[in-house]
Structure formats: structure tokens, C-alpha cells
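Trying the structure run again after the queue cleared.
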Amino acid sequence: MKTVLYARVSTADQMLDHQRTQAVAAGFPITDVVADHGQSGVTTRLQDRPEGRRLFDMLRTGDVLVVRWVDRLGRNYQDVTDTIREFMRRGVVIRTVINNMTFDGATTDPMQMAVRDALISFMAATAQAQSEATKEAQKAGIAHAKAVEGSYRGRKPSFTRDDMTTVQGLLGQGIGVSEIAGRTGLSRQAIYRIKDTPAECERALCSWGL
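Done. C-alpha cells:
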């Protein structure tokens, strides 16, 4: 059986050694490390990332996949829950360094099963709620843009709609503004704007046709 650490880092030398050190310190006997570099993790499914595909190819029943936290496994919590379920279906155990969570499809302990399934359901519900909130904000933005068509549109947003979706997904996972800024390359001010005034951001994007 293998114990594989999967890491996602912004650059080749950023935090990879630190993440491995954390995992070893938490008691995980790491045998392999797989890492994705760059920003693709916040916009691309794990199975569509080069090293993500490698993970699915190399992990077998009984192997353990270690991640710092479950956000490493997808773009948002819906993507994360789908990935967790797929690994569990294949017999792979997922362990997290933060909070020492275990997702094991083979467990028969009723309490562990209940906690596991409740957490997965919570993450899926969070993703759905975020999706519905985004749709409502988009509707409001489109309506406002039509009402003021031809008038002054205000300052052009420093972010795209994809940026906004990414930031909202990361915020929904409880990730801090500073870390999101580092991952996305957006300013803290832009992230706070998305966080605090999503409807206004939607109106600005619609007004500019972004």
C-alpha cells in the first residue's frame, strides 16, 4: 500500500517541502509526492490536471491519499465531493493533515460513517447554496445593466467573471483573503469587493459585458 501526498502550489518552490514536512509531522508515512504547480487548481478539475490524472492512475484499493485540506481536490466543494466519492468508490482512503479527517468508503464503524457522510453532504450543500446565490446575483446584474444601458458604466472591474466564480468558491471553503490573493493574483481589495458586494460586482461585470 502507498501513502501519497498530493500538493498544489503556485510555483515550483513554494510550500511543497513545507507541506510534506507538515504531513510527516502529523504522522503520515509518505511514500510518494505528487504536486501540481500554477493556478490550474482553482479553475480545473483534479482529473483534468496533469498530476491529478497521474494520481488516478497510480492509486489502488487500500492506498492512502494525503492532502493538506480537501480544497486541494477540486475547484469548489461540489467538485471536491465528487472527487472524494470517486476515490472512495475505488477503495482509496483520503486523509487530511488539517483536522485529521478520514474519508474511507470501506469503513463499517457507524459513527465514522455518519461523520464522513455528514461532512460530504455539508460540502455539497455549501456548493449548491453558493451556486444559487451566484445565479441570483447574475440576474440582478443583468437587470441593472439593461436599465442603465448607454449610461456611465463606472470603473471597469479588475476581475473577470471566472475570477469572481473562483473567489466565491474559495471563500465558500473558508479560505482567507490573503491566501486567495496569492492563488489568483487578484488584489485583496478586489477580493473584498467580491466578498462584500457580490451583486454590485455582477452589475459591473454585466455593464462591461464581461
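The chain has eight helices and five strands. Worth checking whether this holds up in the mutant runs.
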